[in-house]
Amino acid sequence: MVEIIKGLQDVIALETHISYIDGENGILRYRGIDINDLVNLPYDSVSYLLLKGSLPDVTELATFSKKLKDERVINENLIQAIRTCNFNIEAMDALRTVVSHMSHCDPDLNDNSHDANIRKSTKLISRFPTIVASFSRIKNGYEPLMPDTNLSHGANFLYMLNGEKPEKTVTEIMEKDFILIAEHELNASTFSTRITASTLSDLYSAIISGLGTLKGPLHGGARMAVMNMLDEVDSSDDAEQYVMDLIENHQKIMGFGHRVYKTYDPRSNIYKGLAKKLAEEKSDTTLYEIAERIENTVIRELVEKRNKPIYPNADFYSGVIYKYLGLHPKLATSVFAIGRVSGWIAHCLEQYSDNKLIRPRARSV
Ligand code: SDX
Prior knowledge:
By secondary structure, the protein is an all-alpha fold. The chain folds into 2 domains: 27-216 and 330-353, Citrate Synthase, domain 1; 222-324, CATH 1.10.230.10. 58% of the residues lie in helices and 3% in strands. The protein has helices at residues 35-38, 43-52, 58-70, 76-83, 91-104, 114-139, 153-162, 168-180, 188-198, 203-214, 222-231, 236-248, 266-281, 286-304, 316-324, 332-353, and strands spanning 19-22, 27-30, 33-34. A 3-stranded antiparallel β-sheet has the order 1-2-3. A hairpin with a 4-residue loop joins strand 1 and strand 2. Helix 4 (76-83) crosses helix 6 (114-139), helix 5 (91-104) packs antiparallel against helix 10 and helix 6 (114-139) runs parallel beside helix 7. Bound molecules: s-citryldethia Coenzyme A. S-citryldethia Coenzyme A binds at residues 7, 184, 187, 218-220, 222, 252-260, 308, 310, 313-315.
């Protein structure tokens, strides 16, 4: 009788060349390069690395970035699709809907050749920011803005969202956020994209599977939950009691814990430094101090006292950063998706290149 592992915990489902995680020592590498090095590159370089397997040289990066920038614009059909959305939904629901509309208009839709998939990849990576920003503006009564091809991926997103060019620190932090969240081995949403790709369904359908999976609060939806949690805490003294009450009521603290990391998520350490930098630049450290007090209380109560490896994950301090950036909580998961779409695509291309239908068994009881 084969043992059933609930949630496929620690089950090795496949081999990948794309990333490596050491959960015991808190190590993350994309294509062999450590996340602490990758985070200092442009997002376009990291996307290129994930899709093609090596970092681009200067010419390759310029060509790749130009292709992405040239594809940022979404047509009037997609703007119209956004205008018909219910504006009470999360941006993730709008993104999922509009990506579906995008697929209807793409002549490459059902062409799974590598070249067609690269063409679709460029459209997906470059248009996610445009779709999310356009939804946010239309929902708030503004007209969507045309993308600015002079701006980086992160800067252009913030420009299209807020209507003004972001300053240097904010731009750097947005780029780093997209890099930190771009890829993470076989997390739930990546696994769902691979399952869809393994049926030889099209790349749009695989990405839409990923969007639906990422939305959940146990996964990418945690960022929104962290932002909402921070709204409930008025001071760092309140933070301590807030966490104690959650623990007392056996409720999970959002932004903490991880299926793989049993120590600090290396991304969280980077996010924490970025949150501190942003707080100090804005001369408003209250929110950061509340977050740090939440972290210290969780570490003291769960790690030190109860020996549970519940550390901050990638969604805790990123939630703090999003609040400092003035992002609405209902945008949080879609901003996560803007970064993650490159990793999803890399995994789909890897699945298509050496495919076997993913179809486990269930034991009838
Ligand atoms: C992401 O997989 C990835 O790589 C995901 C991700 C990526 O880049 O794609 O890293 C992004 O999704 C990060 C995770 C975001 N989710 C959250 O922050 C939600 C809160 N975290 C938990 O729901 C939880 O930690 C999970 C879902 C992340 C992991 O859960 P597991 O591995 O299924 O573990 P579990 O729920 O069975 O918990 C084991 C124990 C339990 O206690 P006991 O029943 O054994 O006494 O740890 C406790 C849990 O109660 N626990 C927590 C906790 N997380 C786990 N207790 C308090 N607060 C928490 N956050």
